[in-house]
Amino acid sequence: MSETVIELKGIKKEFPGVLALDKVQLKVGKGEVHALVGENGAGKSTLMNILSGTYQPNEGEILYKGASVRFPEPRDAQDAGIAMIHQELSLSPSLSIYENIFVGRLLKNRFGLTDIAAMIRDSSVFLEELGMGTLDPKTLISDLSVSQQQLVEIAKAVSLNSDIIIMDEPTSSLTRKESLYLFKIIEGLKAKGVSVLFISHRMDEIFSISDKITVLRDGRYIDTLDTGITNEKEIVSLMVGRSLDKQFHREKKKEFSGNPLLEVKDLSVPGLFENVNFKLYSGMILGLTGLVGAGRSELVQSIFGADNLPDGEILIQGDPAQIKNVKDSVGLGLGLIPEGRKTQGIFREMSVRENISMTVLQKEPGQFLIDRARESEDVEEYIRKLRIKTPGPEQKIKFLSGGNQQKAILARWLLSSPRILILDEPTHGIDVGAKAEIYQLMEDLTREGIGILLISSELPEIITMSDEILVMSEGRINGSLPGDSASQDEIMQLSIPGKERSKA
Amino acid sequence: MDQKNPGILKKLLARREASVLIALIVLCVALSLMSPYFLKQRNIFSVLRQISAIAIMAVGQALIIITGGIDLSVGSMLGLMGVLTAVFSTWHLPPVLVFLIVIFCGILMGSINGLLVTKVNITPFIVTIGMMNIARGLSLLITGGMPIHIDSSINFLGGGYLGPIPFSVIIMALIAVLGILFASRTLPGRNVYAVGNNDRAAELSGVRVHRVKIMVYAITGALCALAGIIIGGTLNSADPNSGKGYEMDVIAAVILGGTSLSGGEGTIQGVLIGAALMGVLRNAFVLLGISAYLQIVTIGVVIIGAVAIDSFKTMQSSR
C-alpha cells in the first residue's frame, strides 16, 4: 500500500434546500489513479470542488500529507499542490499557451519585467513532456482543439508541481483516440508519483486506468473498491443501489401502415446536409445516429423551423407543411427536446412551474392572461407523472439535478401534446436511473401513437430503442438498418465518412 | 400555518428587493422623526410627483433589462415627445388626439430601437446611444433650442390635481399596477423573463424572441412619451433639453430594485421601490437643508451599496 496523500473525513455540504454531501470520506494514495463514480446528483462534483477550495464544507476535515488543512480559496489548494481541471476548461481563449500556463505567477527577469523568453522556454519543456513538443507555446488557446486545451491544462498542473490533479469528466468531449492519449499521460503522471482523481461515467475507461474506485450515491459515501477485484456490474449496482441485471427491453415493429406522421423529401441546407429522406410513423421510434458533426442536430433543428429553413418537402400526415418558425411546428404537433440541457433547454432563474408550462402557453392562440390555477394543475400533474424530484413547483430549476431538469424539459413538451417528438441526445449526462425512466416513457408514448425521432450517439441506446435506424455521415443519410437486428459494427461502418452509400 | 410563517418571512428577506425596501422604510421612519414636514400630505405628494416620470420610464427599462438589453435613449425620447406634444398642440388638435399621436410616436421610436437590436443585430448599448443623440438633436432642431409653450388642456396630465392628488401620481400608480400585472400574470410578460434567461431555449420553446425584444423597446417608447407629456404638463412648456441625464436615474432605479443587468431576473415591484428610494433620498436633503451636491454623492454610494449587499448575499449562498 502506498502512503496516503489526502484524506477527507465526514464531509458535509449544504446548499439552499439541498444536502449535497453527508458524511462523505475519501482517501487517495500517492501515485494512485482514483475514480469517483455515482449517478448525476450523487455529489461527485461538489466533493471535487471542496477538495480544490472552490466550496467550503459545512462539516468535516481534510487531512493533506498528514496535517489538517483548509483551503479558503482555489488558489490556496493550488499552492498546496492540488490542481483541478474543470469540465468546462478554464483557460483564457485570447491568451497564448505560455501565458495561460504562467497566469498569476509570471516569471520576472532581473529588471522586474516579465521574462517572456524564459516562460516560452519552460512551457516548451512542459509541452514536450506531454508529447506536444510540436506546438508553439505562443499559439492562442482559441486556435487549439478541445483535447489540446485539456493537455495545456494538464501542462499547467504539472508546472505547478501538483501532487494531486483532479479531472472532472476529462474525456467527455474527446474522441476515442484522444482519450487513449490522455490515459497514457495519466500513466506517466502516476509513474512520477502524482495522484490523479477523476470523475467519469464511462465504465470502460474507469476499468482501464483506475487503481481504486469510490462510489457515491445521493450525497453519501457508499464504498471504495480496488479496481482489480471488482467488476462493472458490481459498481453499477452500488451506484444505483439496486442490481441492474438486464437492460431495458423494447419489442420492435417492422411494418407500419397508413400515412406517415412525418415524411421529409429531399431536404437540404447547403453546407449542412443534403437530400435527406425519411418516414416516421405513428407508434414508431426512428433512430438517427452518426458521428458528432454529421449534421444530425442541424437537420432536426431545421425541420423544426429553428434556423436555416431547408429546401425540399415536409409532409405531416400526408399534407405538405409550411414551417417558418418554431411556433408553426408547435402548432403542427411537433416537439423538440434539444441537445445541451443548459445551453438550449432550461431557464435557470425561473421556477420548475414556469419551465414546464413555457411551450403549452405559447401554443394557445390569443393567450394573454395566464390562468395560474390551470397552469399549476397541469404542472403538478406532470411533476407527479414523470416523478420529477423537486421540493415543489416553485423551486428554481437550477437547483435540480441534471436528470430531473431533463425530465422537466420533457414535461414541457408532453404538456403541449405533440404527435411527433424529436429527442436530441435525451439521456446525455444523466444517471442510470433517470435514463431507464426516460426509456420507459418513450415506450409509453409510442403506445399512445406518438412518433419519436431519437437522436443519439450512444449505440446501445439507439439499438435498444429504435424500430429503424438511420445513420448519418457528412450531411447524408448513409444507410438505414432494421432495429431488431442492427449491430454496433454495422452502424459504425456506415458512420465513418467517405464510405459508399449502402442503399438509397 | 405556524410552520409556514417563518418560511414566508425568510423568503421575503431572500428576495433581491428586500434590502432596498428595508432601506426605504428605515429612511422614511428616520425622516419622519427628524423633520415635521416629511409626513405632511403636501410633501408626500410632491415626492411622488417628482418621481412619477422616472418611475414610469423605469417600468419599461426594467422589462428591457430583464431581456438582457438596455435603453440609454429614454431621457432624450422624453424630451422629444414633450416637444412633439407642444408642436401638435399648436395645430389645435383635440387633446385626446395629441395624446394618441405622441404615444404612437413613442411606440414608433421604441420599435426602431427594437428592430435595430434584433433584425440588424446591433448591441442595445450602441443602438440606444445613437437614438439618444438623434432624439435630442431632433428636439433642438424643432425648437431652435428654445423652450416652447404648450397651450393645451393635455397639460392636465402633468400639472392637474384630482382633489389633493397630483394627476401624474395617479398615472404612475396606474402604470405601476399594469406593469406588475404584465410582468407576473401575462404570457408576453413571462416571455420577457424567458428571453432574458436563455434566448435559445426560448426560441426552441416557441417564443418569438425578436418580437418579445421589439415589444419591450416599444413599450418603453410609449412610456417615455407618457413621461414627456407629464413633464411638459408640469411646466406648461416643452424644453428641448428636458430629460437630460434621466437615463441614468432610470437605470439606477431599476438596478436598485434588484434587477440583474445580465438579464433574466427582477420585478416591477422592486423597480418602483428603487425609484421611491431615490425620490425620498432627494427629499431628505431638501428637508434637512443639506447641500444638494452631497445628495448626488449619496445617491452614488447608495447604488453601489445596494448592489454590493446583494452581491455578498449571492457569494455567500454559492460557497
Write a structural description:
The complex is a heterodimer of chains A (about 500) and B (about 325). Chain A has 17 helices and 20 strands. The radius of gyration of chain A is 25 Å and the shape is globular. Chain A is α/β, with parallel strands linked by helices and about 500 residues long. Chain A has three domains: about 5-240, 3-Layer(aba) Sandwich (Rossmann fold); about 245-335 and about 420-500, P-loop containing nucleotide triphosphate hydrolases (Rossmann fold), CATH 3.40.50.300; about 350-415, no CATH class. Chain A starts with a strand and ends in a 9-residue tail after the last helix. In chain A, the strands form four sheets. A six-stranded mixed β-sheet of chain A has the order 6-7-8-3-9-10, with helices on both faces. Chain A has a six-stranded mixed β-sheet with strand order 16-17-18-13-19-20, sandwiched between helices. Mean pLDDT of chain A is about 85; it is low at about 500-504. Chain B has one domain: ABC transporter involved in vitamin B12 uptake, BtuC. Chain B has helices at about 5-15, 20-35, 40-65, 75-90, 95-120, 125-145, 155-160, 165-185, 185-195, 200-205, 210-235, 245-255, 270-290, 290-319; strands spanning about 150, 160, 165, 235-240. A two-stranded antiparallel ribbon of chain B has the order 1-4. A two-stranded antiparallel sheet of chain B has the order 2-3. In chain B, a hairpin with a 2-residue loop joins strand 2 and strand 3. The radius of gyration of chain B is 20 Å and the shape is globular. Chain B starts with a helix and ends with a helix. The interface of A and B includes residues 354 and 359 of A.
